[in-house]
Amino acid sequence: MNNDTGNRQNSFTDRIRAVLLTLLVYFLTFEEPIEVSFMPSLYGILNITALMSIPLLLYHMLRYKTVCRYLKDPALIGVLIFCLSLTVGYRHYHYQSWMNTLFSIFDSMRFWMLLCTFYFVFRHFDFGRHADNLFTHTAIITVFMTGTVIADMALHIWPRQVYRFGLGSIQIFYEHPTYLAVHSLFILCILCMLVPYQKKAVLFMPCMLFNMFMTLRLRILGLTVCILMMFVFFILLGQRLSWKNGLALTAGAFLVGGRRFIRYYTSAEALTMARGQFAYNGWKIAVKNFPFGTGAGTFGSRVAQRFYSPLYYQYGMIHTLGMDPIWPAYACDTFWPMIMAESGFLGLAGYLAMVFSLFVKIQRLRDKSLWVYMGAICAFMYELLETTGALAFSDVTAVGIALVLGLALGMDTGEMSSEEYLENIICRRKNA
To answer: Are 215 and 170 spatial neighbours (Cβ–Cβ below 8 Å)?
Structure first.
């Protein structure tokens, strides 16, 4: 009797989570037009969702007595080191107020907190039972977005920001082509995760890759090539990620999208542009303020842009295009230099530990489901490529990526073997 009650409760919980997941897919795909037209407070909702990770983590640690296991997790250790470095820099230099510093730390951690929230909310979610319904909605979004892209190509409904290969970049109703690219990638990753339960999902993937290509962003073009190569290596050839095919993926992405990287960071004109200045001065700041850096909100972050950082004056960056206090458009257009300068080499080591720990967890997914692994590794690769020229993990566009990774890792809790996990799902279906 108790088992029947528990199974009914699990089934009801899964239905609630299925509705929530469907709403999130729509919400995150069209977040920018929704925010502009209907919901200006969207940013605040995302912040609240991120903050939910703290009580959820504490509840899980106490409920399942996993405190010691989590305290040994390299990701959590990396989080503590990174946040400590940001705080020590603030205490030493006081370049920003304590409120700005606190918000900047939260801004740097938002992606990881969202990932944690989604992981706990969808942990052990019976993805297969609700796959058909989710596939229907995902297919509708795919057809709508691709149809809108084709219509824009034919009718020039929205403006073009860049022209390459004789074509204009497509952004449709988004503010920037990058937003179209990341939301198309988000749907592509969801489609990957649906393939084990709905084979037709494969047919819709080229549409999302087409949308990504038509943005004509060089990093996105490099990512598209990288994704196609991963499909060949991992799906068609059945290979695992190795140094050999990893180097091939890197070379493929760089050959297509590396021209901008060379121009921004290694060319003769690099120091005349914001990203070159960030890279050069970020290293100087990290060396000078070894090992903790200058603290949160001081270099390359959103807070450093909004509350113009005094470091930009100290290092003569105010004369660079887009770095002027009156028009600081490019004052938060970087990632690794920001991490290195604000948290120092110690904080950089902590952040790398977080990223590497996430990568290791994603690799474990391959033995549970190859297609779920594909969805997760595509999302992870996007964030890695974005770190070469954007806020990446700290950007609001990473919310959909956090959902994909949280969903995927929810199938790999470390508390069950894959056989136990599948047996648990089968039992719940029989007793529902």
So the answer is: yes
Copy the structure tokens of residue 276. 């070159």
3-state secondary structure of 73: coil
- Of the candidates 334, 333, 352, which has an alpha carbon nearest to the alpha carbon of residue 344? 352
- Where do we find the tokens 């037009």? 33
Instruction: Name the region of 369 (left: φ>0; alpha: ψ -120 to 50; beta: rest).
Output: beta
Collapsed DSSP state (helix, strand, coil) of residue 351: helix
DSSP-derived letter for residue 324 is: B
Buried b or exposed e, range 381-403, using 16+ CB within 10 angstroms: bbbbbbbbbbbbbbbbbbbbbbb
Q: What is the CA radius of gyration of the chain?
A: 22
Alpha helices in 195-273 (DSSP H): 201-213, 218-230, 243-265
Burial class (CB in 10 A: 0-12, 13-18, 19+), 106: middle
Amino acid present at 233: F
pTM over 0.85: yes
DSSP secondary structure letter of residue 397: G
Q: Please compute the mean of the pLDDT values over residues 370-374 and round it to a whole number.
A: 94
Give the mean model confidence (pLDDT) for residues 266-284: 89
